[in-house]
Batch of 3 targets.
Target 1
Amino acid sequence: MSNKKFIKGAFILGIAGLTAKFLGVFFKIPLQRLIHDEGMGLFGLPYPIYTIMLSISIIGLPAAVSKMISEKIAVGDYGGVRRVFRISFFIIIGLGIFSSCFLFFGAKAIITLLDWPQETYYSIIGLSFAPFFVSIMSAFRGYFQGMQIMIPTALSQIMEQIGRVIIGVGLAYMYIERGIGYAAGAASFGATAGAFFGALLLLFYYLKRRKALVDYSLYTYKKDRDGTLIIVRRLIWLAIPITIGAILSSVMGLIDSIIVPGRLLQGGYTLEGATILYGRLTGKAVTLMNVPLTFSMAMAASLVPAISEANSRKNMRELIEKAQTGIKITMMIALPATIGLSLLASPIVHLLWGQTEAGGNILKILAFNVLFIALAQTLTSILQGMNKVFIPVRNLFIGVIVKVIISYFLLVTHFNIIGAVIGSICGYFSVAVLNYIEIRKSISLKIPIKEVIIKPVFATTIMAIIVVFIFNYSYLHLQREALATILSILCGMISYGGVILLTNMLHPHQKKMFFK
């Protein structure tokens, strides 16, 4: 797989992810205005449990499928591709059914165990059917991504979000008269509806195009083909560490849902006040932080099969080049996003949720996690592609410990909810540093300081100066914060793009990867 192909794949997934996040704005903003911070707290509390269930049953296997399929394609074993997909499909579906049953039948026990508000029950039930449909999507996405066919995954992401917005918001409006708990639960069902439509699209695409996806004449069927047991063992060996890593990532969010309310209560807040602060963190700050992370997640999804293919051919030069390119593009996207979100935190919150809404102070600090999460994701994908699948798990576990310690002690101080934010930043910073150290030890990866650090920092600095100037000047003369915010964002994007071109941050062959 050429550099061009894997970067174009990341670009396609990134654009689709950004589109999905943009559509998500039409979910979170009206929902926030409908059920307010308390309702967003009820809506957000079950999500860490939901994502952990997805991690346990679903997330690791599609990544393993993607890696195995790319390895089979690298040696021309398309028969192996079909066997891997067929076997993994039924395993993933079975685990999805298990996760749905766990959430549906265990909702009341979860609420009792974690001492959540009783109204959270409806949100858990609304989410409980989603894992089954997500499992179908995950199986197909692993198949297509392993073959470096990103269009189906991209389309399913958009379709999933459209279904979530229309069904989730629509049902929330229908049930608001019955109470905030019912409305939050109805909104949660949007995740199930979105997953259903996304799975339906992928199934339709596969059935219609499966004969045209691959030219069978280009592939050979190996006589010494892997049996079912060998494929299952390989899937499990790859999936377990990826799954554990995904669980630990979800634990980062679960820690907040467990620690934040209790520690804020000990710090003097009421239960309602603690729920409101948690709603501001998850409903506003985390939502906005996740927007630029769509590109890093896309890069990570594209890097695993790309690095795996180079590694399977023992082509260290190609592997290092792809790793360097992945890190460089991650820095180019994450650094300006970090600074831009931090500088315009409150104006962006006011633009999206209203002038009187709080949460900008949380986003101003949380924005710095964009850089460290993005780098941690990219470096994790490089290690996974190199078959070092357990190393990121160890490093993420260390990051979780760092997060727990810092959050626990800071939440009861004057930092309150910001203590959880600082804990998250320190946790992901630790993961990124440890991952990079391991890669350097394994392949002697050298980072071109000028290309990866100096140029992005210079371009981001110019962008930041222009953003601050345009915002202050526009607000002073127009007296309209929303317009000043939009103008400063547009000018910041244009100025950053201009500096990229002037400094040749993207080499000619890299530009062709995106735009040819």
Target 2
Amino acid sequence: MEATRMTAVILTMILAVTLLAYSPRIVQSIKAPSLEPTSIEENPQFLWANRWLDLLIQAFILFAVIAAVSAQLRSDGRSRW
């Protein structure tokens, strides 16, 4: 049970760091002067060239949710009924 809690804490911290790293507000506040903003209409290949990153983040979020729900629903060995 302690290992499950530690796993949930570690996954939560990694998820928080990932969300902060890719948060649009934070990224927009730190602008590099050499990079011009672009839109999907101007550069549609960007969406498919970086699809692996999107899928990786979604898979991690799904794994974190499954681990958290599993930890919440796990029986502690004592039966309430």
Target 3
Amino acid sequence: MAGRIKKYCGLASSWLAAFLGHCNLESTLRDSASPLRHLLRLSGPLKPAGFYSYSNTSATRIVKRHFSASFAPMAGTVEVETVEKDGKQYRLVKEGKATILVPHGAKIGEDRGEVQQVFYNPIQQYNRDLSVLAIKTYGEDILAKRKEKILAKSNKLGKNKKRKRDETDEADPSTETEPTTTLASDQVTEASEEQKTHKSTFTMLDALSASGLRALRYGHELPFVTSINANDLSKSAAESIKLNVSHNGLDDIISVTNEDALAHMYRAIADGLSKRDRHGNPSKSHKFDVIDLDPYGTAAPFFDAALQSVRDDGGLLCITCTDSAVWAGHSYCEKTFALYGGTPIKGMHSHEAGLRLILNAVATSGARYGLSIEPLLSLSIDFYTKVFIKVTKSPQAVKFLGSKTMIVYSCDHGCSAFETQYLLRSKPTPNKKGSGSFYKHGMAAGPPTDRHCQHCGNKMHVNGPMYGGHIHSAEFIEKLLEQIPNASPEVYGTLPRLEGMLRTALEEIIPGPEPDPTVDPKDAKHAEIDIAPFFIIPSKLATVVSCAAPSDDMFRGALIHLGYQVGRSHCRPGSVKTDAPWSTLWWIITEWIRQKSPIKASKFTPLMPGWKILHSAGLVGREDGAAPKEADSEMEDVQAATTADAQSEETAKKGDEQASSPSELELRKTLVFNDDLARLGRLRDSQKLVRYQMNPRPDWGPLSKAKAS
């Protein structure tokens, strides 16, 4: 050990002179744990060959981490400037319109060797850019609606007063005195009402603020915000936030608290319950328009308090969960169930299922209080999820939660097929008067699948329950995209990726069948489910049957040719969203094999997942000398398999009608894999978009958890 340390000191001392002009050696040595640690820190930028070979000591591990970060690509790096304030040295980090002072010893993303108190991770800038843009879009829209509502109410009251005044004037002509004064009084009243609407309050809670950067950006970049509460459990974090708030000149907007986030929210709930209005309803003055939850790990413990603390007339919850190993992995399924009330899916669409698990946890928590949720935008990004949820008090909407909650049966060890089972069903029923219909809620039919997959014969596993409605609002995403042209690249550093991911999310919304025109449109919206809850990847399907994969354009073209809708998912490149049943998907793959990618039948055995699929298509398992199945016979088999592929009466109605209709059978006979089909399935972009994140640098991702003090 002593020999190695001596060797390190010798290497470092040879570089020391070159760096004396670029750093404050005396102060760094004083603040460092030891002179050796500083020498190792100085040695990082030169990165001598062979220095990585010494990896048995903690000191060497520090050097290795420092090397890997120092020589990272430019994407995701941060320019750091050192400043002095109140006699202390700080590193200055600018993001958007906000600037934070990072104390010495705190992480800023590229220096992973130091113990952190409050940290800054540049990889999370996309998260913050998205939050600012989404809250800006939401805030402008909700404030405009509130203004219209107040003006409409004011106009209605004005008309009622005028009607009463006219009736009084007709009854007693002698009361016709000072009409000018009365008119002026009405105008003053209307003017005061308009003035009140212009001064509408908009409050926000950054419940787990850490460095306070999110709150600072909200204060700088959202002009309509009147109050922001930045809270953190760590005393050092709260002090850092106060320093940064003062440095940014936002003391009049941002208030800083140092307490447990749950205690803070429940205290606001208690204050609202103790101050009720004349109708006995809890006061809304203590509720927030927006609550941002961005913890280290899961946000599940905060769901209940946040739902009760946010406004129940359309308040917004911004939730980040960074525990992807839990909601997207199958190794900790017991932990997933404990946190989110459901089990995860193993397979290519695990991250999309994770989003639905989180949404279901929020929805079931809110339903206890008569709160309905509407997911505006739900994204799986890098190593975390980000969901924006609109919360509304609506006991009527809550009744539809059971029919939007699903169990998933997945063939995760075989062909990756899945079937969905909704817990309840909501069916339009004519009312007694015959003037319309209403939704009647009842028990759902039995399981849509056997214990074994009908396509490959492998075991089916149970996943969920999870949210089965749409995870995005097309209207909200379109409003977000309208903000992009006017957004400054200097403020939104990840603007290209923002636009690319938002457009991809918009494309993955597959419209369902038209609702019954006789039902209330509001109820019809509450009853909507996602007919294509998960994406598929053509190359993964080709792997099951060991054939060359069709191109994405070719696969999409085949689906469009057969009359199905197609899109793609923001979760993974090469993904395809479609409302086609699994029997149709496997028919396309086997037809691709038949036309373009022949396989060697001798390498398949009955125990392989692809054997049953290929055997049903007549591609393997035929007796010697037996002729292949006739086309008409194959169509009959496909039709029977497709009819048996029904997921439930509601979810598969459209798919079954298309799959069993003669028109689709005729279209299957005319399907030819050629350039024309690929052109049919090509998704043309008017501009090049950054749809999916590439690795910005080595070893990127979440930093280690901040230590409270």
